[in-house]
Amino acid sequence: MYQLGGLVVTLVNGLLGLILWRRLRAAFPRHGALISGLCAAGLLLTALPALLMAAASFSGLRALQRHAPEPLALIAMGAQVSLLFYGLLLGLVTLASAAHRALRRLRPTPNAPATLDTQTVTSKNTQVSSDAQADPAAQDLRVPAEVEARPEAVDERRRRLVVGATWALPAAAVAVSMGGVLASRQRPVVMRLALPVRRELTSLHGVTIAQLSDVHVGSFMDAERLDELRDAMNAIRADIHVVTGDLLDHHVSQLELSARLLRGLRPARGQLFFCMGNHEYIAARSASVATIVKGLEEAGAQVLVDEAREVRVGGDRLWMGAIDYPSLARPGEPARRPTRDGLDRALGQMRDDGAPRVLLSHHPGTFRTARELPFDLMLSGHTHGGQISLGRIGDYALTPMLPAGLYHNGHYEHRGRHLHVNAGAGGWLPVRINCPPEITLVELVPA
Questions:
Q1: What is the pLDDT of residues 152-162, one digit of tens each?
Q2: What stretches of 55-188 adopt beta strand conformation (E)?
Q3: What is d(CA 196, CA 143) in angstroms, rounded to the nearest whole number?
Q4: What pTM value is reported for the model?
Q5: Structural contact between residues 274 and 296, judged by C-beta atoms closer than 8 angstroms
Q6: Which of 68-82, 195-209, 347-361, 378-392 has the lowest mean pLDDT?
Q7: Angstrom distances, CA of residue 285 to CA of 115, 292, 322, 382
Q8: Is 180 helix (H, G, I), strand (E, B) or coil?
């Protein structure tokens, strides 16, 4: 599957590279050799991730992350996004131009004065010349030679626009994509969310929960970046910390750095909860699920799998539950419950006593099944917010990375049930556009 994807992207890279090369050569004919060299070097750098994936599946892409210098890997991934973004811009411009031409054809044109094109002038002069032999007065009817030979005028303004668009589109694609690379490395922003609770639960008023998600240790996430995440989480001084999956990326060797991050977290009330993501199970293929869970728990996390815990705060309490990642277990892994069974089990351990109920679920799609059940807030991740976000229309997020489905980023509500999808702190793609790394801070406030 990954090899096929790499092959398709490689072919698309070649096609877009050829289009860009031809357009630049046509716009700047005096610099053909320079343009050819730059396009060849840029395409080689751009195609590197896709070529590696086509040759060695996903492990080829992992090799780029592990063995190439980080700046080179970041630039290569950013260049790949730049070329695809250029293709998108080029497609939009082409469609807009085609629509404009179609509208011009449909629009009625006023009667224009007759003009003489070169062919008409030539044929008329030929006829007049032949007639002049019979009638010398016909010579006065011939069109002047300067009119016959006049070349068609060049629209310099239109030419400048074409040349400008030729270099402006790729320049914009590179600027936006490389800006996205830098944005992916910035300190996480804090997204604040208020959760109303009953007024009589006074001990819960002002209690805060900080959520971290999708760190992906090992995928452009080294020890220095992890220390920044740890410091950002601790700076919020939240009462409770939660991690909603994909702390590891793909191998058990990443458990050491993951545990180091967890041990460095300092929730004010000392409790850290964790739900399993799909990449925890991917990492478990190099060891076992029990090994991953044990390492996380030894680092101080309470790993909840289709279960709930009571959290006492003064004389009041809240309920914290978590749902397993919704997928089938691989051979040798413990069997997983269907999502609805896991929800029933976790919610069944929460008393119906008016205390707020918080559910952790790595995959936000669980909200479709859970939104008719009795809970207050679900915290999810998994989507990375799309990493390239063009905004939202209602519940539909506009992102080319996740073109289908609901619940990609931010807050959602359904009949009093709330979902917040964290945009993640890391990612398998080191590019973020209008979708910065995120820490979510939930504050319990009186209703």
A1: 555 566 666 66
A2: none
A3: 87
A4: 0.82
A5: yes
A6: 68-82
A7: 77, 10, 22, 19
A8: helix
Give the number of other Cβ atoms within 10 Å of residue 423's Cβ. Answer: 27
CA distance 250 to 258: 12
Q: Tokens representing 426?
A: 């890391």
Q: CA 375, CA 318: separation in Å to the nearest integer?
A: 11
- One-letter amino acid identity for 185? R
pLDDT in tens, 189-244: 999 999 999 999 999 999 999 999 999 998 889 899 999 999 999 999 999 999 99
Task: Say how far apart CA 54 and CA 41 lie, in whole Å.
Answer: 20
Pair 257, 251: CB distance under 8 Å: no
- pLDDT exceeds 90 at position 320: yes
Residue 86 CA to residue 171 CA, distance in Å, equals 9
Query: Per the structure block, which two tokens stand in for 351?
Result: 């008393």
Q: Which sign does the torsion angle of CA 233, 236, 240, 242 carry?
A: negative
C-alpha 120, offset from chain centre: 58
User: Is residue 292's pLDDT more than 60?
Assistant: yes
- Both tokens of 145, joined, read 């030679």
Kind and range of the H or E run holding 52: helix 32-67
Of 361, 372, 290, the C-alpha closest to 326 is 361
- DSSP letters, 196-217, are EE-TT-GGGTT-EEEEE----B
Token reading at 111: 């009667």
Cα 165 from Cα 27, distance rounded (Å): 10
Q: Do residues 48 and 76 touch, judged by C-beta distance below 8 A?
A: yes
**Amino acid in the structure at residue 145:** A
431-436-439 Cα angle (round to 5)? 130
CA distance 54 to 11: 11
Strand partners, 302: 273
DSSP state of 386: G
